[in-house]
Amino acid sequence: MGRYAVAVALIAAAGSACIAAFRGRIEEASVRGAILGAVLAAAGALLGIALLAWSTGRGAREFVGAVALGMLGRLALFGGALVFVGLRRPEGLRITAVAASLLGFFFVFQALEVRFVMKGMKDAGS
Length: 126
Hints:
Layout: H1 2-21, H2 28-55, H3 60-88, H4 95-125
């Protein structure tokens, strides 16, 4: 889990740095929204892998419960953030940037999570 957390943090930091590098070309509200999306996606990824790490070795019921809770937790986190930004319309955030960033980083972190889980299963089977 430690290597996964480091990888997520590095990807989120690198992605946020790339987004921040476009400050002159993109509106400030879009930059802030995209960085918020990256941070939320990273938080969801870390919470999801923490649940999976907890369920490892506990049995199929706990594993399936952890996967379901991780999915619902991310849905609540991401949906709550999007509803908040959409309804409150803060000056410094653009909802389309938050949504696009959340979606993009979510898929990157999901691919990374699947890779780490499959590698962990392969190593456990050896």
